[in-house]
Amino acid sequence: MVASRAAGPAVSGNSYLGRSGKLLLLVVEPQPAEALSLKNALAKQFSLILADKAADGLLAAGEFHPDVVLAAADLHDITSESLVSTLRRHSPVSVVIGAGPDDGPAAAAAMRAGATACVARPYRISELEPLVRSLQPPRTTLAAVVCGPVRLNPESQRVFIDDRAIDLPRQEFHLLHLLMSNCDRVLTREQIRRQLWPGLADERSNTLTVHIRRLRLRLDDDPWNPTVIATVRGRGYRFTAPAPDPGRSPA
């Protein structure tokens, strides 16, 4: 499971949300003592997400879009090679592999899969911290997205319908931004999963369905006959700008 998450972490400029504040570091570390040591040493310098399994690390990467990933070479549920290849397939995030004395083959495979660097584990903070800082991607500012009366600002993480503010949890905000950025285009369920939940491969999962249903309710979209987030049978979903409310003036 994900052991802990940074409160309100900033997210990568390559993600659907703008970012500010500390570098966001995702740590995939199966050994509790090592994870605690990293947390104590790095929590003041970086925003941290801690995962003790590779699968949970992939889910956290899809949700929070970290700036840098630090992963142990000797993961148990998924190999570090598979972790790196999956992460790199979905984003350009830098991945640092921590290798112990017996982890040479696993670390070499992870490097071939696209890992950025390999460091000694147990970690030496004096070596690790400057390396992580050097891998921080350049900061970018994302423009607001407007579809009819719906306006989404990635920098402030706020959504408005006309002049009415809509409060969205982080992952619903990601989903809405993805849909609005492709207004009037059909996005397949697989396309959405690859962007937002790269570790969620099961076609039978209802995670996306639940998020779509919640978004429809927040946007006052009729759940029985949705027109804003329409289901395109056999394909996926399409966002269409709702008609403006004549009783409201734009914000």
Secondary-structure blueprint:
Layout: E1 2-5, E2 24-28, H1 32-42, E3 47-51, H2 54-64, E4 68-72, H3 80-90, E5 94-99, H4 104-112, E6 117-120, H5 125-134, E7 145-147, E8 150-153, E9 158-161, E10 164-166, H6 170-181, E11 186-188, H7 189-196, H8 207-218, E12 229-232, E13 236-239
Helix pairs in contact: 2-3, 3-4, 6-8
Describe this entry's structure for a reader.
The chain is an alpha/beta fold and 251 residues long. It folds into 2 domains: 2-134, Rossmann fold (3-Layer(aba) Sandwich), CATH 3.40.50.2300; 145-239, Winged helix-like DNA-binding domain superfamily/Winged helix DNA-binding domain (Arc Repressor Mutant, subunit A, Orthogonal Bundle), CATH 1.10.10. 33% of the residues lie in helices and 22% in strands. The protein is built from 8 helices and 13 strands. It has helices at residues 32-42, 54-64, 80-90, 104-112, 125-134, 170-181, 189-196, 207-218, and strands at 2-5, 24-28, 47-51, 68-72, 94-99, 117-120, 145-147, 150-153, 158-161, 164-166, 186-188, 229-232, 236-239. It has a 6-stranded mixed β-sheet with strand order 1-3-2-4-5-6, sandwiched between helices. It has a 4-stranded antiparallel β-sheet with strand order 7-8-9-10, covered by helices on one side. Strand 5, helix 4 (104-112) and strand 6 (117-120) form a beta-alpha-beta unit. Helix 2 runs parallel beside helix 3 (80-90). The longest helix is centred in the last third of the chain and has 12 residues, at 170-181.
